[in-house]
Amino acid sequence: MASCMGSLLAETKRILRLFNIRPRKKLGQNFVVSRRLIEDLISFSSLSNHDVVLEIGAGIGSLTLALADVARKVFAVEVDSRLVKVLKWRLKDYDNVEVIQADALAIEFPVVDKIVSNLPFSISSPLTFKLIEEPKFRFAVLTYQKEFAERLVAKPGTHQYGRLTVAVGLFAEVDLLRYVSRNCFYPPPDVDAAVVKLTPKKLESPSEVEEFLLELLKWLFSQRNRKLRSPLLHYLTKVRGLSAEECSEVVRVVPYMEVRVRDLTPRQFIEIADVLFRRLRIIEGSELSG
């Protein structure tokens, strides 16, 4: 507990008072007040003076300063104009930091070596999908809510296993590095946190199959406790507009139809998507030519 408190907490409160800032819960503003956590984020990232780094949700710059002391270049993204003023004030003597005032979900990220961030918990899910779908980095070291982090590394068949687990697992290697007490942040969030490392990987399937699979997962996990047959038929009829005869043709070739969605592994989802994508192209292609 002691490592999460102390001078950095006092410094954070002082800066917030100086700029008359109250943290906004809806923006997920929980600032790191643990020097040990900052040191761990730097260590887990294996930073060097050759690295170009992206920080998302830079806040008042406590992590940014530590990154700037090591990295060659730091892009610090922050949406809150109040905090941007703080960042520019604290980083005025650093010529290797570029502060970007923007919504991280709305901008195109620069190409970097690594991403190191205490992520705003409020945008964890959409931001994670944005990162893995548009990988412009070697790996990312990120703080998440503990429950969210555990969903990322959940095993098939568990209650935490879901669309998020499969999608992220398909596109990235996921490692849960350490748990973090909520008291390492100010104001403390309602839950504990965890540090996760995401390393993008390339699927063997074509990118169009990847995109198709992401769409398909939404439908399949809407009925996660049903056997694959049920949500898949629902998708084929409601979304793709297939006839009963065409659905029967698809069912005959798609594997794992009698396995419950929650029990399918990421590799099995790839097999399903690959077969289904090719079969739908044949069916829909013949309809267009006819």
UniProtKB/TrEMBL annotation:
<feature type="binding site">
    <location>
        <position position="118"/>
    </location>
    <ligand>
        <name>S-adenosyl-L-methionine</name>
    </ligand>
</feature>
<feature type="binding site">
    <location>
        <position position="103"/>
    </location>
    <ligand>
        <name>S-adenosyl-L-methionine</name>
    </ligand>
</feature>
<dbReference type="InterPro" id="IPR011530">
    <property type="entry name" value="rRNA_adenine_dimethylase"/>
</dbReference>
<dbReference type="InterPro" id="IPR023165">
    <property type="entry name" value="rRNA_Ade_diMease-like_C"/>
</dbReference>
<feature type="binding site">
    <location>
        <position position="78"/>
    </location>
    <ligand>
        <name>S-adenosyl-L-methionine</name>
    </ligand>
</feature>
<keyword id="KW-0489">Methyltransferase</keyword>
<feature type="binding site">
    <location>
        <position position="32"/>
    </location>
    <ligand>
        <name>S-adenosyl-L-methionine</name>
    </ligand>
</feature>
<keyword id="KW-0949">S-adenosyl-L-methionine</keyword>
<dbReference type="Pfam" id="PF00398">
    <property type="entry name" value="RrnaAD"/>
</dbReference>
<feature type="binding site">
    <location>
        <position position="30"/>
    </location>
    <ligand>
        <name>S-adenosyl-L-methionine</name>
    </ligand>
</feature>
<protein>
    <recommendedName>
        <fullName>Probable ribosomal RNA small subunit methyltransferase A</fullName>
        <ecNumber>2.1.1.-</ecNumber>
    </recommendedName>
</protein>
<keyword id="KW-0963">Cytoplasm</keyword>
<dbReference type="GO" id="GO:0003723">
    <property type="term" value="F:RNA binding"/>
</dbReference>
<keyword id="KW-0808">Transferase</keyword>
<dbReference type="InterPro" id="IPR001737">
    <property type="entry name" value="KsgA/Erm"/>
</dbReference>
<dbReference type="InterPro" id="IPR020596">
    <property type="entry name" value="rRNA_Ade_Mease_Trfase_CS"/>
</dbReference>
<feature type="domain" description="Ribosomal RNA adenine methylase transferase N-terminal">
    <location>
        <begin position="37"/>
        <end position="202"/>
    </location>
</feature>
<feature type="binding site">
    <location>
        <position position="57"/>
    </location>
    <ligand>
        <name>S-adenosyl-L-methionine</name>
    </ligand>
</feature>
<dbReference type="InterPro" id="IPR029063">
    <property type="entry name" value="SAM-dependent_MTases_sf"/>
</dbReference>
<dbReference type="GO" id="GO:0005737">
    <property type="term" value="C:cytoplasm"/>
</dbReference>
<keyword id="KW-0698">rRNA processing</keyword>
<comment type="similarity">
    <text>Belongs to the class I-like SAM-binding methyltransferase superfamily. rRNA adenine N(6)-methyltransferase family. RsmA subfamily.</text>
</comment>
<dbReference type="GO" id="GO:0000179">
    <property type="term" value="F:rRNA (adenine-N6,N6-)-dimethyltransferase activity"/>
</dbReference>
<dbReference type="InterPro" id="IPR020598">
    <property type="entry name" value="rRNA_Ade_methylase_Trfase_N"/>
</dbReference>
<keyword id="KW-0694">RNA-binding</keyword>
<comment type="function">
    <text>Specifically dimethylates two adjacent adenosines in the loop of a conserved hairpin near the 3'-end of 16S rRNA in the 30S particle. May play a critical role in biogenesis of 30S subunits.</text>
</comment>
